[in-house]
Amino acid sequence: MRRALLAALAASVPAGIMAGLPPRYGGEIAVALATAPGEPDPARASLPAQLEAARALHATLVEVGPDGQLRPGLLAALPEAEPGGRAFRLRLRAGLHFHDGRPVTAGDVAASLARLATSRSHGWIALPLSGSEEVREGRAAAIAGVQVVGDLELRLALDAPFPELPRALAALPAAVLPRGGPPTTGAGPFRLSSRAPDGGLRLVPFDGFWRGRPYPDGLSLLATDARRAARAFGRGEVDLALRPEAVAGAASRDVPASTATYALVNGRRLGRLADDLRRALGSLDRSELARLAGGRAVPLSALLPPSTWQAPAAGPVHAPPRIGGNPRISLLAAEGNRALADRLQVKLFDRGVRAAVETVRAEALAGRLAEGAYDVALVSLTFTSSGPHPAILEAAWGLGGPAAARRALQRLGAADAATAAGEVAEELGVVPLLATGLRASWRPGLEGLEVLPDGTVDAGDLWSVSRPAR
Amino acid sequence: MLALVLALALPASAADAPGALGRAAGEVASRLAEEAGAPEAVALQVAAPGADGLVGPLAAALSEALSRRGFAVALLSAAAGPGGEEAARILGADRLLRVTAGLVPGRRELALTAESLPTRPSFFLQRAPEFRAGGARLWTLSTPADETTLLLARSANRAGPAGPALWVRPLFKVDDRILALGAGDAAGDGSTSLVLVTPRSVSVLTLGGIIRARYVLDPDVPGPRHPAATVAVGRLGARGRVAIQRAGSPGLLLEMAGGTLLPVETLSAAPLAASEGGALFGAFVPGKASLADVLEPVPDPVARPRSPREFVAFASAPRPGRVAHAWVSGDGVLTPLGPGLEPAGPPLEGVGSGVALADVDGDGEPEVVASSPEAGATDRVRVLRVNAGASASPPTVVLESAPVPGSILAAAAADLTGDGIDDAVVAAVLPGGGSELWLVTSDPRFAEDR
Questions:
Q1: Model's pTM, two decimal places?
Q2: Measuring CA to CA, which residue among A172, A214, A190, A188 is closest to residue A62?
Q3: Crossing angle, helix A338-350 and helix A273-282, to 10 degrees?
Q4: Are B313 and B373 in contact (CB under 8 A)?
Q5: Shortest CA distance to B174 belongs to which of B151, B193, B201, B147?
């Protein structure tokens, strides 16, 4: 009876203000995700579910708090640039350990950065470091600009000043892994206990996490569809859902919209038609597209999604004249973007363009993009960065590859963020369409929920006022 | 009016035969004899606001002391008030001796003011008797209050058919979040202070919120997910009367010197108590803000927990009774322990984590002063009586306050008002980040009902 009362009252109380109740250790927390977390390798994770699992298992050198401010993570203090801005000194906290008991050393940080440089998804983080390109291209094993000064100290040398490097290092893919260890071993709040056949993970607290042991005794990350999530909520089997839709009847809140969807127009293949198509796509009513996409979609008129930067509002765009000559193009999209591609097909037809929609699996889409084998492609990119400068790098890397990201890095040294973002979008032939985020739904009595700017949740902060019997 | 003020500190011999009242009365009579010279007729008017039980015994002690000095004494009712001088003239007294007594808050001291007012009519002012013919005298005295005096001071105001009167009143606010709260003689000078541990400092304050000493802490030390600390105030060793530990950091023994707190020793354990029953030290669970089941009389870094249980709070009674200490678990269950740390009754359910043991009604057995175990944006102070017996039974709720803002997460107990009865102080963490302290007392001088 008392617990029921606690739970009922807790539902109406903001997190962290619980009379007489400090956060409580113990209990199991189950989180329903939209997809299976799979292999939670932070340097390879690109889907929200993978990033959520990586957040639970791994730790970064620098953290971004819920307020967007940087704070030291595994580092003893925020990195400070040397005079001239072309190098940073990093010093690790003393006494840190990985899940397997090995100490976290400067050598592990250097190895993690080298590993990151080879990542197709998140190599942008290592891009400013001198010598990262050689590692990416297989010409060197270690980044020349990463100098291990001592067990706990490094010096990062850059090709050019990049003051936002600490913010780039705060992105989850920059988490530190042990040299030679599996990507599930990290220095984060939880360690892997077991895997479920459906790709779900069960994690247990890591007592040695630098910010203290997580509150729950266990964390289950479950892959569910909308119906299963709702049923599991109803049965009390799930405490938190991070899914595109809110769970009916549960308290819920928005998660920052960190996944941006763009139309990529291939100028090399389309020639002069590409400009007409960009203008046509740029004049579409994005609000209508967002409504069609449902869930938490918001119109996107600039390169960066709102989770990374609130870009200045764009002015009105007037509809261009109808494109003559009845051109025929292919519209390539991942299976998850089929509905949006169909809608674009209709809109382009209204402007005189016949588009044949072709859907492929996400992995195949990446290959087609790399080959340039498309006319117009719909690409969704989940951002892990915060702040405009790292996000521009991330966008350029994700949409145009390493060469585009390198050019973007040069632009960032010469222009403000808004100008650089516009130039990058134009160079890549990118038309931003919409940004989507998840909804966090939680059961009464769950406390400590704080969504980070990248849309992930530190599950170690979650605790239960009342513990459901499981 | 000519007024001569003499401040006299009486010897602090504790259990002398005359007691505090006798000593004070003797000193007043002595001063009056020097001033007036016997034989004189003295009208005696005694008042003790907030400590009415002192009036009769003090008047008797003064009568006796004055008689021994050769004065003829007539008692006037305190109700005569400012009209006492006129009443004294009607009685034909040469002088009115108006004595006001009370206990000094926080110091267990009896304080007196004695006004000597001549009442003989002046030959030259016969038609204006309201004008005093001679100089008045004022003496202020203080002496340590013995148990009898403390008992008399409170007896007339407390227990009634409905039980003891208790009040919960706000004290002051601080800007930071209070992690741990202690109370006791932090300076070793016999005064009772509050000790507040926040993420940034350890502060010794008066009951009125005035800072007596402070020690700055580094707020960025690694620790558990939410900061936690313990504090003990009292006799802890040869030097230092304030001991603290923040979860994840070594403990500190601090000594008050002037307006600062100086670290004199690091501690390898969490200080939990320094009461009459002796000091007790525990241990934080590594990486957590919880306390392990460890209770040792001296810091023992390798002490093994007596059970796997973990606790969110520990409380120790300033004056132990059958119950002397208590653990509180995260489920809101209080486990009472006796002076020898043996189980001292059935567990009590429904206890919040801001908890203190304090004999607030003076019956010799500490009550549980706790926050509400229920979730909400506000909290309540509850005073619970631990029932004797082996089987679990619901506690007797002596008091449940009106809602107080925030969340009470720390509490301490000591005789803070100086009336000889334990009081409790609870600290509520406010939603905006600061904390507010509340006093739980049966001292009517601090009455303010919530």
A1: 0.79
A2: A172
A3: 110
A4: no
A5: B201
Which class is domain A259-437?
alpha beta
Going by C-beta distance under 8 Å and a sequence separation of 6 or more, which residues neighbour residue B17? none
Distance CA B67, CA B341 (A): 53
**CA A34/CA A24 separation, integer angstroms:** 28
CA distance A167 to A64: 8
Q: In CATH, what number does A59-174 get?
A: 3.90.76.10
Task: Give tens-digit pLDDT for B332-358.
Answer: 899 999 999 999 988 888 888 899 999
Residue with tokens 């009143």: B169
**The CATH homologous superfamily of the domain defined by A24-42+189-255+438-464:** Periplasmic binding protein-like II (3.40.190.10)
Whole-angstrom Cα distance, residue B157 to residue B170? 21
DSSP letter at B81? Answer: G
Mean pLDDT across the stretch A323-345?
91
Q: Which of A1, A2, A21, A204 has the highest number of chain B CBs within 10 A, making it the mutation to test binding with B?
A: A21
Which candidate, A422, A432, A429, A399, places its Cα nearest to that of A284?
A: A432
Q: Hey, what are A133's tokens?
A: 């390109």
Tell me if chain A has a CB within 8 Å of the CB of B127.
no
**Which site among B246, B333, B374 would you substitute to test the A interface, given the most A Cβ atoms closer than 10 Å to its Cβ?**
B374
Coil, helix or strand for B217? coil
Structure tokens at A105: 């050393």
Do A381 and A399 form a contact (C-beta atoms < 8 A)? yes
pLDDT for residue B228: 94
Taking contacts as CB-CB distances below 8 angstroms, the residues of chain B near A212 are 222-226, 248, 287-289
Residue A295: the pLDDT is 65
- The answer to whether B59 and B111 are in contact (CB under 8 A) is no
Q: Sketch the domain layout of chain A as residue ranges.
A: 24-42+189-255+438-464, 59-174, 259-437
- Mean pLDDT value across residues A212-216: 94
Reference A174, options A143, A205, A141, A206; nearest CA is A143
Q: How far apart are CA B229 and CA B15, in angstroms?
A: 39
CB B379 within 8 A of CB B372: yes
